[in-house]
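Internal tracking record. Fields below are filled automatically when a chain is submitted to the structure queue. Please do not edit lines marked as system-generated. If the sequence contains nonstandard residues, flag them in the REMARKS field before resubmitting.
Queue: standard
Priority: normal
Entity type: single polypeptide chain
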Amino acid sequence: MKNARLFFPVFCSVLALAAAAVCAAEDGQRVRPVKEEGAGPRIYLCTDLEAVAGVLDSVNWCLEGGRNYEEARHLLMGEINAAVAGFFDGGASEVTVLSGHGYQAMIPEELDERATMQRGYYPGIWPCRIDRGYDAFALIGQHAKAGTPYGHLTHTGSMDVIDRRINGLSIGEYGQGALCAKECGIPTIFASGDAALCDEAEALTPGVVTVAVKFGLDPDDGCREMTKEEYRRAKTSVVTLAPKAARKKIYAGAKEAVERLINSPESFTYADNLEPPYVLETEYRPTEHGGEIRKERKEHPTSFSAVLGM
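SYSTEM-GENERATED OUTPUT FOLLOWS
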C-alpha cells in the first residue's frame, strides 16, 4: 500500500472521525431498527483521547502501554457517559459511540447502557461509516489541528503531519469529521476538548455547542523543523479542569445541543464554501530535525469523504 508506513498511526487516530461520517450512495442494510415516527434525534458521537480533562501528555497517557494509559481510558469513559446522559436528557432517542482514538481506547463495560457502540470496518469504506439515519454528529475529547498556538497535544491524524488542506482550507481532525458529516447532510452540533479546538470548531461550524475542558500554554509557529517525536513532546503544557467539573460542563453542553437541534435546527451551519473537485494536500514532518518536508497530493472529482480515504 502506498505510504503504508504512514497509514497505521493515521488510521488508528482520530482521523477515524473523518471517515466516521462517510456515507455511500446507498445506506445499505442497517443493524439499527427504523426510527419510530416522533422519536428524538439520533446522535453519532466520535471520541478522542488527547483533549480529555486530566490527560497530560501523549507518551504516557495516549499511547497503548503508556504508564497512565489505563487511567486515561477511565477518564475518557467519564466524559463519554456525561455526553450520552446529556444527549438523552435533551431528547435524543439514540446515541452511537465510535472510539476515534482506536477501538482499544474505550472500555465497553463502563459505557452507559443506553448507548450503542460502532466497531469494526466496512469493506470498501474507509475505515467506517455513518448512514443518513443519524440526525447529528458530535465529538468529545477532540484536540486542535497541528500547528495551533496554545492548543494541547495538537496534531492532525498523526504527529507526523505539519498541515492538511482541502482546496486550500487548512483543516484538522475536527474539520475532517465535520465536513464528512456535511456531505451526508448532517449537522455537527457539539464538540468538547481544549479551548483552541473550541475556537476552531466555532469558526468552521457556526452554532456548534462547544465545551472547553483544558487550555494549552505553548505557542506554535508550525514547528516545521521538528520530527514527529519532537513535536509529540512539544505541546504538553496545559491547564485542565478537574474531571468531575469537566463532566458537568459536558453534560450541560450536550443537553443544550440536542435541545437546540430539536427546537432550532437551522442554528447549526457550516462556514466553508468548498466545491468539487476536492484536492487534499498534506505536508509531513522531516524524519530528522531540520530535514526535508514531504508533501502529498490527492484529488477526487466529487466526494470530500472519498478523497480522505484514498
